[in-house]
Each structure stands twice: as structure tokens, then as C-alpha cells.
Amino acid sequence: MHTIDYIIIIGYLGVLLYLGLIRRLKYDASASDLIVGGRMLTIPAFVASLVSTWYGGILGVGEYSFKHGISNWLVFGVPYYMAAFLFALFLAKKARQSEVLTIPDRLAQAYDNKTAVAGSVIIYLMTVPAAYILMLGVLGEYLFGFPFWMGVLLGTLFSLIYVFLGGFRSVVRTDVLQFVLMFIGFIILLVTVYFSYGGISFLQQNLPTAHFTWHGGNSGWYIAIWYFIALATLIEPAFYQRCYAARTARTAQLGIFISIICWMFFDFLTTFSGMYARALLPDLAEPLASYPALALKILPPGLMGIFALALLATVMSTVDSYSFIAASTFSNDIAGRLSSLSDRDLIVFTRFGLLISSLLAVVVAVFFRSVVNIWHAFGSIGTPALLVPVFFSFVGYRRLPSRWAFRSILLSGGISTAWLISAYFRADGSYWFGVEPIFQGLIISIIIFILFSKKQITPLAMNPK
Predict the structure, then answer these.
(1) Which stretches of 281-370 are DSSP H helices?
(2) Could you tell me the pLDDT band of residue 408, with boundaries at 50, 70 and 90?
């Protein structure tokens, strides 16, 4: 890193703060203004915000591409495109038409307040941005030479200060900038390495054969698990929040279809960048840092600074979005359901929730120190707990009675959690009976729905008013 690179990064942070703070929340802001920005998202803003937010695990993608090559597309690409397509097809318009603010609002609408609180706890844990806080620490180490803890603290501070003061609108304004930077940075990296070292023939000569197979050296069972974990997209709070905030139902649906195309192109950039990193840096000790290590090796001053922005922008766009969702879940869906809160109280509790979420994220990040493991752990609990109750609150004519919806969340989430924890108490680190925890919870949830759901005469009204 050279002086010009640091000047570029400081300039980015300055522009980020300006965009985030240009409009602060007013004293009398409503819950709708705070959580969904008054429902005014256009298609360009919708796409930029969703694409940048949902791709925050950039170093995790680099870690997997470095280790397993092109199968990254089959693990972190295809299953998520499929799930996002299903969301757009079945849920996007209905989510916008529901006129609620959060997923727990819909659970309360479809079932009862107790079910909404149970769902809120799961969503809160799923959206605490531990994996992305971890990546900020790693970026701080590689780009600036900071100790891990300093990278975590400084990255989190810059990601949250404007959210603290500006709410959802600040998140969207900064996401637009970060969307542009993430694509520019990776295009620069891949084009540079391609013209410096060559194309597919170079990679074939310098990578293990498994890097060009669909499995990348992993078992088919391991890859199949990610297709189930990807179902978490159907309960993804960032998707619902953008749909709730969209100007119209059509904006929500079309915005997701366009976003899928953007993710496909970005996956092309990131997968091959990770493979080049393995080819050029086969002895890299920390695969999680494959992208910054590759950039430091091949990019000249100035371009290195721009690529650093791409990494920072991709991660920070997710840290601010998920931190805000966790904070608004804490205020609107947990505290707000346990006691009555005014709109002003809601802002105060949301800001307090930001602080709590950040502290929890740091603890989890330090404990796991692997982005992929964090995704696996929280996806294995949240998906089985919420998938069935949330999906069928919008789709179809069958619905669980409220008491069974509540029990479904507790039982499926609890069993998956116990199964996940079992690996930490076994000498070989395996799960009970060698079965992944996500399947136990999903089976319980599906059985409960089959046995106890009842047919509704008409679908639940979309508009609670």
C-alpha cells in the first residue's frame, strides 16, 4: 500500500460519511421512516442496495474459491440464485402488499404476538453481522497492518456511525456508492491478472485438477447441504426489508430479478480472482485473505487503492445493513412487543440495539474466525426455525394455528441448535449420527405443518389495516 492508496481510501470514507449523514433522522420521524425509509425505493436504488448488502461475504467467497476453485459457483452461486428466484416469484409482491415493516410484523399478523417474538429472536441472531465484522478485521490486518481488533473496531465504527444517525435511508444512499465500487474494483483485479499471466491455460497449469471439477474436492453431500442452507434466502431479512421499502410491488419483484443477473456476473469475477490467487500464491497461510494478498502482489499504486475500496465497500455495505436490521429487530420486534414504545422511543432503542449487536458480533467473530463456519452455523439454525412459518404466512391456503407456529419455531430451532452444539463435545468434531443439524429442524418443522396446518377459506389479508 502506497500513499496514493491511503488517500483514495480516506477520500472514500469521507464521501461515505457525507452520504450517510447528509440527511439525519428527524426528531419526529415515524417507524416507517426509520425502518423502511418511507417506502420510496426505486428499482436502481433497490438493486444497488440489495446486491451490495447480500454479497457482504466477499472474503468467505475468496476463501472457498482459493481452496476449491470453480465449484464456488455451485456452492455460493447457483443455490442462492435459485432461492432468490423463488423469492421473487412467490414472495416479493406479497411482502410489499402486506404493508408491514418487518418479518415479525408478518408473523404477528398471521399468527400471534408470541410467535412474532420467538421469530424476532431468531432473526436477531441471524442478522448480527459477525461474519462481516470478522472480514473487516482481516482487511485491517492485510491492507493497513492493523492488529485484528483494531480493524474490527475502526471498520465497525465507520460502518455504523451514519446508520446510528440516519436510519434506513442512510443505508441505501451509501449502498449505491458501494455497489459501484465493488464491481469496478474486481473488474480491475481480474483484467490486470488476466493480461499479466494469461487465461484458462495458465490456471490449468498452476492449479490442482480438482479446482476445475464441480465438487472442488468436497463430497456431493457437503455441496448439497448448501442448497438447503440457501433456503435461508426465503426468510432473508434484507430481502424483506427492501421489498417492504420498495415504491411498488412490481419494483420489489423486478428488482430481485435484476439483482440475480448482477450476482451472476459478480460471481464470475470473484470465483476466477480466487483461483488466480491460489495459482500465484499457493503457500498463502490465510485463504480468507486471498483477494487482498493477490491485489498486493499484482496491482500498482492507485489501482490497489481502488481495489481496497471494492473490498471495504462490499463488506461495509453488509455490516451497516445487517446491523441496522438487527437493531430494528431489537427495538421494533422484541422491545416493542414486550412494552409499548412511541416512535421516539423506537429510535432510541434502535440506536441502543446497534451498540448491543456490534458487541455481540465481535464476540462471535473472534470465537469462529471463519466466515464460512459462521454462515453454516447460523444458517443451520435460522432456516429450519423460520422457513415454514414465514413462507406459508404469505403463500397458499394452509396455515398453522398460532400455538403450533410458536412451537414449530422453538422445536425446530432448538433441535438444530442442540445438533450443532453436539459437534463441540465429540472427539472427532462430528454431529450426532453424522447428520447435518439443518435437516433435523427442517424435518420437525415440515412434520408439524403437515399434521397441524388448517385450510383457510381465503388467504390472509395482505394489508393489516
Answers:
(1) 290-298, 303-328, 336-338, 343-368
(2) very high
102 SS3 class: coil
**What's the whole-number mean pLDDT along residues 70-99?**
93
Whole-number Å distance between alpha carbons of 73 and 337 = 41
CA atoms within 13 A on the CB side of 331: 27
pLDDT greater at residue 428 or residue 316:
316
Q: Which residues pair with 454 in a beta bridge?
A: 399
The model's pLDDT over 237-273, given as tens digits with 9 standing for 90+, comes to 999 999 999 999 999 999 999 999 999 999 999 999 9
**Using an 8 Å Cβ cutoff, are 114 and 261 in contact?**
no
Check if the beta carbon of residue 452 is closer than 8 Å to that of residue 401.
yes
Q: Rounded CA gap, 103 and 274, in Å?
A: 35
pLDDT band for position 103 (50/70/90)?
A: very high
Half-sphere CA count of 147, side-chain side, radius 13 A: 4
Residues 104 and 314: their CA atoms lie apart, in Å, by 27
Cα–Cα distance measured from residue 327 to residue 351, given in angstroms and rounded to the nearest whole number: 7
The answer to whether 440 touches 416, Cβ cutoff 8 Å, is yes
> Grid coordinates standing for 191?
483484467
Each residue's pLDDT tens digit, 201-228: 999 999 999 999 998 988 888 888 888 8
Please measure the distance between the N-terminal and C-terminal CA atoms of the chain and give it in whole angstroms: 56
The residue extents of the domains of the chain are 3-372
* CATH code linked to domain 3-372: 1.20.1730.10
CA 165/CA 83 separation, integer angstroms: 33
**Residue 159 corresponds to which amino acid?**
S
Contact between 177 and 313 (Cβ < 8 Å): yes
CB atoms within 10 A of CB 44: 12
